[in-house]
């Protein structure tokens, strides 16, 4: 990629990544995707004692069509089991297809199980940390949450499943949602520095618009 695209993408990556320090909580809440490193990282957190249970949420999304033989949540749960997480500590929500549904459907699942965790650790991809936390804060405001992700740098993240192009498109789309979703009641307000929005405009102009939501402004 050109130096200008790299610089703009790195600015947005740094904005999305919150780098919160973790404390032990009641539940690990994994928002599933096409990146199995998130499942592996969540399992590692469980094995280190950060929470006594894990819930995996996710059906099949745009980026996981045909990638796994089952719902994202089921595939991630299988990875966690293989890494030593006991089956009775795992809960699976296999219906949600977006971040808001991840939270709503997980809340419903835990209520059905008569579970009422107060503190959550949200586990997500690095460049989706900020919107994940903002969505949780809006849709489940009486709970406490932190967000974390696999410890990967911008330069380390892309692999044979997720290209730099895919990553940048998602980062740009998430920033658009961070700006406009609060007015729709989907997430809490976030301050977006001018430098970050300028980077967004540069990337949209360069053609990274595949993940933009059509129903809201660019």
UniProtKB/TrEMBL annotation:
Transmembrane segments: none annotated. It comes from the Bacteria. Residues 38-143 form the DUF218 domain. It holds the Pfam family DUF218. InterPro entries: Cell_Envelope_Assoc, DUF218, Rossmann-like_a/b/a_fold. This is YdcF family protein. It comes from Photobacterium piscicola.
């Amino acid at each position: 990629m050109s130096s200008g695209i790299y610089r703009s993408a790195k600015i947005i990556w740094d904005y999305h990544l919150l780098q919160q320090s973790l404390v032990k909580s009641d539940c690990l809440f994994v928002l599933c995707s096409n990146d199995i490193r998130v499942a592996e990282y969540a399992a590692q957190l469980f094995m280190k004692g950060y929470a006594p249970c894990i819930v995996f949420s996710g059906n099949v999304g745009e980026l996981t069509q045909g990638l796994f033989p089952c719902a994202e949540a089921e595939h991630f749960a299988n990875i966690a089991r293989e890494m030593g997480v006991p089956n009775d500590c795992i809960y699976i929500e296999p219906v949600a297809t977006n971040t808001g549904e991840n939270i709503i459907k997980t809340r419903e699942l835990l209520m059905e199980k008569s579970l009422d965790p107060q503190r959550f650790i949200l586990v997500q991809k690095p460049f989706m940390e900020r919107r994940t936390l903002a969505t949780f804060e809006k849709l489940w405001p009486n709970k406490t949450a932190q967000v974390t992700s696999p410890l990967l740098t911008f330069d380390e993240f892309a692999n044979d499943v997720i290209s730099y192009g895919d990553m940048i498109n998602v980062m740009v789309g998430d920033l658009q949602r961070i700006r406009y979703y609060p007015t729709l009641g989907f997430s809490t307000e976030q301050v977006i520095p001018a430098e970050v929005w300028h980077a967004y405009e540069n990337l949209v102009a360069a053609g990274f618009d595949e993940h933009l939501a059509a129903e809201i402004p660019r």
